[in-house]
Amino acid sequence: MSLHKFSNNNTRLSPVEKTTFLDEGVLEVKHIQEALAVDIEILEQRVMVIAREYNKWAGSQKAIDILAIDQDGNLIVIELKRGTNDSTPDLQAIRYAGMVSVMSREDIVSTYQEYAKLETESEAEAVISAFLGGEIEEHSLGEKVRIFIVAQDFTDEVVATVLWLNTQGLDISCYTLSPYKHNDDLLLFSQRLIPLREASEWQGKFARKEREVRASNVKRDYTKFTVVCDGVKRGPLPKNRTILCIVKWLLEKGYASVDELKTLIGRFTNLELFADIVTDDAGTIIQGVDGYRKGRYFEKPEEIIHVGERTVVMSTQWGGEEFFTAMKLLKDKYGSFFECTESVR
Fold first, then answer.
1. What is the average per-residue pLDDT within 77-104?
2. Are residues 196 and 280 located together in one domain of the fold?
3. Is residue 240 part of a domain?
4. Is the pLDDT confidence value at 56 over 70?
5. What angle do CA 73, 74, 75 make, to 5 degrees?
6. Which of 19, 140, 236, 301 could bond to 224 as cystine, CB 3.0-4.6 Å?
7. Is the alpha carbon torsion for 58, 62, 67, 73 positive or negative?
8. Does the predicted TM-score (pTM) go above 0.70?
9. Are residues 192 and 260 in the same domain?
10. What is the DSSP string of 203-239?
């Protein structure tokens, strides 16, 4: 994020210097917390602060930076971080949310009464009721706890964690506060990071993960096959080993080439069909080249394929439909060299 100002009669843009709270001597409690408590709506509209440095629970010296409510009566735990290198603000905020989740309506009213320095609970109730837009009894005050995490920046680790926690039913928002220096003025740019397009890359990852989970919940096909090559029967074999058996035999007998098989069935596995490797005298892989990814290829000595001067391994990644499409193509072109039948269960 960059900030610019117009100059030269509004015909040029000049960058405004970005700085840090530390460099400007801005303190977390004395400056940031106090300013946000007064102008909390720079984070979200229709939010009311009911406490600062709230720590009214037994057995803990920790304090919530700012405690607030929204117009639905939800509690909001607001955790502030002046720096950019804290990797655990999410965990700290969750602990605080757990602690205040047991607050009753009376607790919330008395907490605000103390914060606002009101003489009676009735006054506090009247202010809260006016904020909520109705009598306090009409709202489920404190039934849900939301979390706001505010920092100058967030690590990928925190962003990923928050996005995942939100998929599990939590309500966490991340806000960035970016300080800029312009002459003698310190400017502040505030922005909600989560949920916004800046988090789209991580959201896309979670969406893909959810699709994978849904796919994995579909009933798996554990069908096995028997392969006969040169009168030698092999099996029952799972689908990926069935492909390996046929491909290895075709290559080592010279009935097919690496390039021919890549062209024929290479597009049906989500890796390169073959990866070139270097092995030691015992047949153990000591070096992989050409897109080799350890653990994603058939790597045991007896599974490695030797073709002339080349030594290659074959991908293990074969889905259900991809397997059957690849097998049909292999049978159509090389079916006179092998037989493959479904094993009797």
1. 82
2. no
3. yes
4. yes
5. 120
6. 236
7. negative
8. no
9. no
10. HHHHHHHHHHHHHHHSPP----EEEEETTEEEEEE-H
